[in-house]
Write a structure and sequence with these properties.
heterodimer, A: alpha/beta, ABC transporter transmembrane region fold, Rossmann fold, 6-stranded mixed sheet, 4-stranded antiparallel sheet, 20 helices, about 60% helix, elongated, B: alpha/beta, 3 domains, 10 strands
Chain lengths: ~625, ~600
């Protein structure tokens, strides 16, 4: 189906970051090896064409005949090597062709190298992104409670991209430099060993200088980026606060403030540039010095007959190929170190344990009726800090349980246990007589509908949002039906694009009540056996409250429902009311029973009736 | 955001526009000596680089082949000297060009920012913040790049090709002609590639932002995803995105990988001709060093060609950016001071709406024939359903908008005869969602009056009821409020915005009361602060709380852009109209909220009963 299903990313986790990155290439390694091999062949072809020039100069064109030594070139399949001297003009086209062949080789293989390296990097990134996406939606609630969205997002985007670049930029880049160095170095050694030593004098200095500078350039760049972020923030604040700016007539002040960040950014940019403006000429100077030195010695050697003129020409090309790329080495190493850091951060997410959804076991019942029994249930998010203590009650299928209590009294924790978002610490919960733990999570969640306090919609069309909870195909008629039942159909039809209207940033902004009703429609379509309504009417304005109440009544019909609410009017018709305080059930019963007791419930109820008296009093003042 | 996406897509359709290019060049006119500086140095770099090949040719021909040690030494000294010069020029051009780029960006941002401050309210209502942001950030960067590095690259490339051709011609003109024939082919191929690559690159950037969006939604909505067992389907959809990302970035990558080899092979064909034809001429019209120089020139030729192609491809984008930036800079503010506008010195006095009509969109009238006269010092509560014209009235008083017809008079004088500043600087505004700027609390309060002393700031905070909570913070008045004030609670932000308004000591006060609930104590503080602020000032309050409404001198009920009821609290209640309904409804709600809160405090104090 998707790339993810075939590969377990957990295998790639390693303390050795390089090893981890190597393992991440599983399945694409041959491509990467192919890419490096192609790089080698391309470099070889380039070096050979340099040697070919030298050979051409010495043996075909030189006015002074010299002793030929072509043993190294015979494997090139250049024909008639042995008859060069007698057939100079006839051989020329072949040599020319030789150049072209080598160029084609070099081109073809550098293309292959680029293609395969990017195939590796892009595929690894593709698979990794898919894996992380899936992994994140399967991690436990506990993990998500503790992790910041921004940080997680940063890791799955920037860090994954840094890993991708590690393969395609730094890996191949450093590889290229090393290969160019080895091959050209070997060729120079073949020409003359002393010359070879002289050619690399400057390299250690070059590496040290480039490491030093790129370390500093990297830091300066980060400062520059920070200032850039500050500028964006200043701008954003000014634009979104335009009312305040205008209301206080503070345009000039704002301009001055922006001037400061803007100027700072200019200065930071300038500092960064000065570093670059110093670095590149310095390396130019170093490479230049090396070239002068090399030409000097090679030239003298040629004059003394230690090497041929052709050797000299070939040598000039090779020295350039060794020295120039070295200037990039510092940058590549600094970036590669960042890539390794990104691997560590991503690997940290990969190592987190997913919550098993199916647990390899079949559902114990085919259909949930909804008889639920809690017996001595304790629960703690953190060890030894119980948020639910000795919860015991039972509810028959189709009944409504209402939960009343202050914030933090444990109502939401209690209902979160049912879909097994969290696992209870001790005690027993059964549905239709079967222990909750014996139900696969997947089965439970398909059969439990939740309407949360703050309705969450996705940036999709309204229709997609309504059908979000079901995997089967749904007809338009079905969608309309649930939307009507949720009292939101008419609202949707008022939008120009109806059910195809996009929700959120890129589409319409819906009111809290409208969102809530779309969520109700979504839950209705899902048709769960058990329903949880977590303070579902709190974000609703009074005008739509009646409509939502009616929709809720329809929703709760024939389902075992748990309702969390603050208002007694919402609760009084429940079959069972649980009054919670500090993680315990302090009162339990029907409206009538609880009214008969002295306690939180009766006090709450009494307050509601006081309202009418007060209003009466207030209005009588007017006369 | 949808606008942003639409505007980004415009890039593809924009054609070249000479006028825009010229206007881009105008941006660096004040720095012409900088431009001259980097152009001269890059020119010299280009020439020296091209000359190096001639030097090595002479080293071979005059030094090594001629067996002349002195000549070789001389030439190497020359080489070293030129290398040194090169280094100096490289430093100069990187410095000049880079700093100029930063400077041009700085200038553009400053201009845009200052211009935006003068634009009318209606412009900001129409234009998404994201759109404006990308004009100031990314577009200005693209333009600056074109006018600095782009210009540098073109100069270098053109000069490099020209000098190379010149030097080649001095060696052998027949061969040079062949190379000149090759150039257009190279350039054509290069541009073709660069444009293809750019298209794929943009596509992958677009998908990348969708991927980020998908990740974001999946993380923030993870509870719903889990509750609805949506994992498999989500992954399947996400795979569609990442697959697309793979396709376009892989395509961009292999096109780039193909680009250089293709150009190289075309050059190699040139080299082949040189070797073949030139080889036959050795001893007659070309030397060995000459052939070597030719080969170097041709193989190097691909770099300037590639640079030209790249600049060309990006130039289209930069021109599109420039058009958007210029369109922003050319936008005229809709409301400006009339000629001969005179500051009356105060705006205390009556405020009068006379037959005012107003609409935001032509066929959707908001206010029609609206009349209202407000006496000095009066407090007016504006009441009515959302979207029926309350905010519009306030916007008109502030002159963020002007009436489409009819007039608004301040102290009997049409307010369009006054300068905007005269009105804005004397009106205080407290918004429903208080907007703070990142910085300290002190800075935020001082926003009300910039020359206020620390004592003034503290005094204002005390009047607003903000002083006590501020003193409880770790850094007191120097506490950072965070971006948009995120580090503070809504109630605290409201108190600070009250203090800010008190400090500005306005003559007319506009308040949009907050609907969001805050804790009882803070609410009482806010109420007290508001009372202090309204004292002795003409005030307009878009009111939600009964306590505020009841205290108003006059309650104006606005429905469908008309005043449907007006009078004191008592009068309107007796009338038993819309206000009566509104009041009873609101009364129930406020009281039940209050009682529930009491209950909550009550229960949390109760010790849990033992089971």
């Amino acid at each position: 189906m998707t790339l993810t299903t075939t590969f377990d990313m957990k295998q790639t986790v390693s303390d050795n970051r390089l090893l981890g990155l190597y393992r991440m290439m599983t399945g694409f390694r041959l491509y990467y090896i192919g890419a490096i091999a192609s790089l080698t062949i391309a470099t070889l072809a380039r070096t050979l064409s340099l040697l070919l020039i030298g050979w051409l100069v010495d043996d075909l064109l030189s006015p002074v005949p010299q002793l030929p030594d072509f043993t190294a070139l015979t494997h090139l399949n250049l024909p008639h090597v042995e008859v060069i001297h007698s057939a100079v003009p006839e051989l020329l086209p072949w040599v020319a062709l030789g150049f072209l062949v080598l160029a084609v080789f070099q081109g073809a293989f550098s293309y292959l190298s680029g293609r395969w390296a990017s195939h590796t990097a892009e595929s690894v990134a593709w698979r990794l992104k898919n894996y992380l996406f899936d992994h994140i939606q399967r991690l436990t609630f506990t993990y998500h409670d503790r992790m910041q969205t921004g940080e997680l997002l940063q890791r799955v985007t920037s860090d994954v991209d840094a890993i991708r670049r590690f393969y395609v930029e730094q890996g191949v880049g450093i590889g290229r430099i090393l290969i160019m160095f080895s091959i050209n170095m070997a060729a120079i050694v073949y020409l003359n060993a002393t010359l070879a030593l002289l050619s690399v004098l400057v390299i250690p200095v070059l590496i040290v200088v480039s490491l030093y500078f790129f370390h500093r350039i990297g830091n300066k760049y980060e400062e520059f980026q920070e200032q850039d972020a500050r500028l964006s923030t200043a701008l954003q604040e000014n634009l979104s606060g335009v009312r305040v700016v205008k209301a206080f007539a503070r345009q000039q002040y704002e301009a001055d403030k922006f001037e400061q960040v803007n100027w700072q950014k200019f200065l930071r940019g300038k500092e960064l540039l000065v570093l670059n403006a110093v670095y590149w000429p310095i390396t130019d100077l170093l490479t230049g010095a090396q070239m002068v030195l090399s030409f000097l010695f090679a030239g003298f050697m040629a004059l003394d007959g230690q090497i041929t003129v052709g050797d000299f020409i070939a040598y000039a090309g090779m020295v350039t190929a060794i020295i120039n790329p070295m200037r990039q080495l510092g940058r590549l190493i600094v970036d590669a170190a960042r890539g390794l850091g990104s691997y560590a951060r991503v690997s940290d997410i990969i190592q987190q344990i997913q919550e098993p959804l199916d647990e390899q076991k079949p559902a114990p019942v085919e259909h949930i009726r909804g008889d639920i029994v809690f017996k001595d249930v304790n629960f703690a998010y953190v060890e030894n800090e119980l948020v639910l203590k000795n919860i015991t009650f039972d509810v028959k299928a189709g009944q409504v349980v209402a939960l009343l209590g202050a914030t933090g009294s444990g109502k939401t924790s209690l209902v979160n246990l049912l879909p097994r978002f969290y696992e209870y610490t001790s005690g027993s919960i059964t549905i239709d007589g079967v222990e909750l733990r014996d139900f696969p999570k997947s089965f439970l969640r398909k059969n439990i509908g939740i309407v949360e306090q703050e309705p969450f919609l996705f940036s999709r069309t309204i229709r997609e949002n309504i059908t979000y909870g079901v995997t089967r195909d749904v007809t338009d008629e079905e969608v309309y039906e649930v939307a009507r039942a949720a009292a939101v159909h008419d609202v949707i039809m008022q939008f120009p694009e109806g059910y195809q209207t996009l929700v959120g940033e890129r589409g319409v902004t819906l009111s809290g009540g409208q969102k809530q009703r779309i969520v109700l429609a979504r839950t209705l379509l899902k048709n769960p056996s058990i329903l949880i309504l977590d303070d579902a009417t709190s974000s609703v304005d009074t005008e739509t409250e009646a409509a939502i109440r009616e929709a809720l009544r329809r929703l709760m019909k024939n389902r075992t429902s748990f309702v969390i609410a603050h208002r007694v009017t919402t609760l009084m018709h429940a079959d069972l009311i649980l009054v919670m305080d500090h993680g315990r059930i302090v009162q339990m019963g029907t409206h009538q029973q609880l009214l008969a007791q002295d306690g939180i419930y009766r006090r709450t109820f009494e307050m509601q009736s006081r309202i009418d008296e007060e209003l009466e009093k207030e209005l009588s003042h007017v006369g | 955001m949808s606008d942003d996406i639409r505007f980004e897509e415009e890039e593809f359709t924009t054609q070249f526009n000479g006028g825009t290019l010229l206007r881009i060049l105008q941006l660096v006119r004040p720095y012409w000596h900088w431009v001259l500086g980097f152009l001269v140095s890059i020119g010299l770099v280009s020439i020296i680089e091209a000359y190096f090949n001639i030097l090595s040719m002479r080293m071979i021909d005059e030094g090594i082949l001629a067996n002349n040690r002195n000549r070789l030494e001389q030439l190497l000294v020359e080489y070293g000297f030129l290398q040194f010069l090169l280094v100096v020029f490289v430093f100069i051009f990187i410095y000049l060009c880079g700093v100029l780029g930063q400077r041009v960006m700085y200038d553009m941002r400053k201009k845009m920012f200052n211009h935006m401050q003068s634009l009318s309210f209606s412009y900001f209502d129409r234009t998404p913040v994201g759109w404006l942001m990308s004009r100031v950030t990314s577009d200005s960067e693209r333009i600056a790049d074109l006018v600095t590095w782009g210009m540098l690259d073109i100069t270098w490339a053109v000069l490099n090709i020209c000098t190379a051709l010149f030097f080649m011609a001095t060696i052998n003109w027949q061969l040079t002609l062949i190379v000149m024939l090759m150039l257009p082919v190279l350039l054509y191929v290069a541009i073709w590639f660069k444009q293809k690559i750019l298209v794929e690159f943009r596509e992958s950037r677009k998908i990348n932002s969708q991927i980020t969006g998908a990740f974001n939604e999946n993380i923030t909505g993870v509870r719903v995803v889990k509750a609805l067992r949506r994992e498999e389907k989500n992954l399947e959809e996400f795979d569609g995105l990442t697959r697309g990302m793979y396709r376009s970035s892989f395509r961009a990558a292999w096109l780039s990988a193909l680009f250089l080899p293709v150009v190289q092979i075309i050059s190699a064909a040139g080299v082949m001709i040189v070797v073949w034809y030139g080889g036959l001429q050795v001893g007659h019209s070309i030397t060995i060093g000459g052939i070597q120089a030719f080969v170097s020139y041709i193989t190097f030729m691909m770099w300037p060609v590639q640079d030209l192609a790249r600049v060309y491809a990006h130039m289209q984008q930069a021109v599109a950016s420039a058009e958007r930036v210029f369109s922003l800079m050319d936008t005229k503010p809709e409301i400006t001071d009339r000629k001969g506008a005179k500051d009356p010195g105060t705006i205390r006095g009556t405020i009068e709406f006379e037959n005012v009509d107003f609409y935001y969109e032509k066929n959707k009238p908001v206010l029609q024939n609206f009349n209202l006269k407000v006496n000095p010092g009066e407090t007016i509560a504006l009441v009515g359903p959302t979207g029926h014209g309350k905010s519009t009235i306030v916007n008109l008083i502030c002159r963020f908008y002007e009436p489409r017809s009819g007039i608004i008079k301040i102290n009997g004088q049409d307010y369009t005869t006054m300068p905007m500043h005269a009105i804005h600087s004397r009106i205080g505004m407290v918004l429903q969602t208080p907007h703070l700027f990142s910085g300290t609390i002190k800075e935020n309060i001082r926003y009300g009056r910039l020359d206020a002393t620390d004592e003034d700031v503290i005094q204002a905070a005390k009047l607003a009821g903000a002083h006590d909570f501020i003193m409880e913070l770790e850094n007191n008045y120097d506490e950072q409020v965070g971006e948009g004030g995120v580090l503070l609670s809504v109630g605290q932000k409201q108190l600070i915005s009250l203090a800010r308004a008190i400090l500005s000591d306005p003559e007319v006060l506009i308040m949009d009361e907050a609907t969001s609930s805050v804790d009882t104590l803070t609410e009482a503080l806010i109420q007290q602060g508001m009372d202090n602020l309204m004292q002795g000032r003409t005030s307009f309050v878009i009111a939600h709380r009964l306590s505020t409404i009841k205290k108003a001198d006059r309650i104006v009920v606005i429905e469908n852009g008309q005043i449907t009821e007006m009078g004191t609290h008592q009068e309107l209640l007796r009338h038993k109209g819309h206000y009566y309904q509104l009041y009873t409804q609101q009364f129930r709600q406020e009281l039940s909220e209050k009682l529930e809160r009491e209950l909550k405090d009550d229960t949390s104090n109760t010790q849990p009963m033992s089971a």
